[in-house]
Amino acid sequence: MNYRRFFSSLSFFGQVRPSGKMAGGVHTKARCPQYPNSEVNRLAVPDDRVSWGKEWTEYAPVDYTAPSVKAGPVWADPDIDSPRGTHSMVTRSSREVIEKFKWNSIDGKVNRKSYSATYQVPDGIPRNPFGRTGISGRGLLGKWGPNHAADPIVTRWKRDKKGNKITDPTSKKPILQFVSIKRKDSGAWAIPGGMVDAGEKVSITLKREFGEEALNHLEVPEVERKATEKEIAALFKRGYEVYRGYVDDPRNTDNAWMETIAVNFHDEDGKSVGKIPLAAGDDAADVHWSDISSDLCLYASHSEFIEKTALYRKAHWAAAS
């Protein structure tokens, strides 16, 4: 089944909740000691010095942009040279590159607007609006400034063999399940999301990423395949926007950061996507239905998105105190 073509053909109409500033408060994963997939260590940033409003004249972050990004793939911005990552000076050629960017706006097919705030651009280079991270440059991220993703949270109720909802014995609330994938890069469990391509609608990204990561290599007879397409199309016609904003992601730097739109698509009776066999694909090493609770330990800010989903669905999250 060609899921990229199929999901791109669907429309999306959803309920929208107000944009969030950041799930979880002050970023912590964006200050992890060692930058992902590298041997680069961040400058340690204490909690009380995360804010740019806190004066720190000695602040000298490590400058790092991954070789795979510096190589100039089609999804990445041009590189900008600067000494020691301070961006207090840039070369003439870099200045010419900087002047071509349209920060805090739609720049051709690239959305350089932040979902959370108008970010500052000192010396012509975007600055993370949620504070210092101990590392400058772009790290593993392709874009200077916000890098937009989309996270589809597909849920169903946990049921017994008779089809009855299973409730948690302590909270007395029904248990919700969501489709989770195990990331190949970090081994962490996560929502099956991904980056929004340049010029792509977020609604298409949500469907594409779910299809590529959670339904890859799904092989069924022709008649059954058509029925599956119909069920998936119906589910993705309406979703509830759980979160829109900054993500506390370990790939973040002082000059490049992750933002996302997380949308919940719920299979109320478990008879559409809830009954379709899952198969890991693309960036996923494994995939399964996971019970939702406060015990979850997920990638980046995903636990916060799942908690918001549980609260909205009036499902179990934590044991009653």
Which helices and strands, and how do they pair?
Blueprint: H1 3-8, E1 13-15, E2 62-65, H2 67-70, H3 92-98, E3 106-107, E4 110-111, E5 135-139, E6 145-157, E7 176-183, E8 189-190, E9 194-195, H4 202-214, H5 222-235, E10 238-246, E11 256-267, E12 284-291, H6 302-312
Parallel strand pairs: 1-10, 2-5, 6-11
Antiparallel strand pairs: 3-4, 6-7, 6-9, 7-8, 7-12, 10-11
Low-confidence stretches: 1-14, 16-20, 83-89
Proportion of residues in extended strands: 15-25%
* Helix/strand/pairing category: alpha/beta
What is the average per-residue confidence, as pLDDT, rounded to a whole number? 84
Question: What order do the helices and strands follow?
Answer: HEEHHEEEEEEEHHEEEH
Helix content: 10-25%
Principal-axis shape equals globular
Please summarize the sheet with the most strands.
8 strands, mixed
Number of helices: 6
Radius of gyration: 21 Å
Query: Termini, distance in Å?
Result: 47 Å
User: How many distinct beta strands?
Assistant: 12
